[in-house]
Amino acid sequence: MRTKKVEKPRIFQDGRDMIISLGVMLIVMFVVIGGTGLCHYQPGNPKEGKVTRVDYTTFLQSEAQSADYPVRIPASPEGWIPNSALRINLNGHSGSSVGWVHGKDWIRFVQTSASVDDVAQGLDGKAREEKGTKDIDGTTWHVFEGSDDDVRTAWVVDKKDVRWAVSGTGSTDEFSTMAKAIQEAKPEPSAGESAPSEVSSSPSA
Question: Model-level pTM?
Answer without folding.
Answer: 0.71
